[in-house]
């Protein structure tokens, strides 16, 4: 059975973290487990498009749960996901501060596994269907419905044709497209396009991608596509 939602779980106490992660996975959730803030930010960087909800302990090493919540609320992909603080800090002022940071729920420790699961299910039921479909490759994240590309969370200003190219490559990451195939895809009703047009668009696109330009690869004698060496196995 395919997991229905992916949860980012940030908890530095190893045994409770693994117990909760295993319990959630047994109940058909996929869990990205982080034992400190550094690992959490790595998951956010690499898997933002997959995360549906976050469970954060406040007192974790490196970047604490409060700062992770702030980052989530500013993130173009994650800003609307439910966030739960699961923490031993149970004073009223701590709960108020957590909610003011943008958390949707606050569960004091110790809490039973079933209680946490019930809160997760409640928040996900209330969550509106996502308006955007995201595809991520490296530092680049493509918002299919919004027609936007983000590089390290900053929107890349693309022309309509450049966006069409990016979407073509992102939706078909293992394929290499000939110039003729690309021309047919971007040309539409315009019959006055040439092979050189593709090269110019690719050059301009790479310039806008900056440090991520290597993701678009020239396959000599064939055409263009995503760089397979930079894609996950």
Summarize the structure.
This protein has helices at 14-26, 37-47, 65-74, 92-100, 113-126, 160-171, 179-187, 195-209, and strands at residues 5-10, 29-34, 53-56, 83-87, 105-108, 134-137, 140-143, 148-151, 154-156, 176-177, 216-219, 223-226. By secondary structure, the chain is α/β, with parallel strands linked by helices.
Describe this structure in words.
- The protein is of the alpha/beta class and about 230 residues long.
- It has two domains: about 120 residues, 3-Layer(aba) Sandwich (Rossmann fold), CATH 3.40.50.2300; about 100 residues, Winged helix-like DNA-binding domain superfamily/Winged helix DNA-binding domain (Arc Repressor Mutant, subunit A, Orthogonal Bundle).
- The protein is built from eight helices and twelve strands.
- Strands 2-1-3-4-5 form a five-stranded parallel sheet, with helices on both faces. A four-stranded antiparallel sheet has the order 6-7-8-9, with helices on one face.
- A hairpin with a 2-residue loop joins strand 8 and strand 9.
- It starts with a strand and ends in a 7-residue tail after the last strand.
């Amino acid at each position: 059975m395919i997991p229905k939602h992916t949860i980012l779980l940030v908890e530095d106490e190893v045994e409770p973290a693994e117990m909760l992660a295993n319990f959630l996975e047994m109940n058909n959730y996929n869990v990205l487990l982080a034992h400190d803030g550094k690992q959490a930010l790595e998951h956010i960087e690499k898997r933002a498009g997959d995360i549906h909800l976050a469970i954060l302990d406040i007192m974790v090493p490196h970047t604490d749960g409060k700062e992770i919540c702030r980052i989530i609320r500013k993130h173009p992909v994650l800003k609307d996901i439910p966030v739960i603080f699961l923490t031993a800090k149970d004073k009223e002022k701590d709960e108020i501060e957590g909610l003011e940071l943008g958390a949707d729920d606050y569960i004091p420790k110790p809490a039973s596994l079933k209680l946490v699961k019930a809160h997760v299910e409640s928040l996900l039921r209330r969550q509106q269907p996502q308006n955007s479909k995201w595809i991520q490759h490296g530092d680049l994240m493509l918002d299919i419905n919004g027609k936007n590309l983000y590089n390290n969370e900053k929107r890349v200003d693309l022309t309509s044709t450049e966006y069409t190219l990016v979407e073509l490559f992102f939706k078909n990451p293992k394929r290499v497209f000939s110039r003729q195939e690309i021309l047919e895809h971007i040309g539409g009703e315009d019959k006055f396009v040439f092979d050189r047009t593709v090269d110019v668009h690719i050059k301009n696109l790479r310039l806008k991608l900056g440090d991520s330009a290597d993701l678009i690869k020239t396959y000599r004698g064939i055409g263009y596509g995503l760089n397979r060496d930079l894609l996950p196995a």
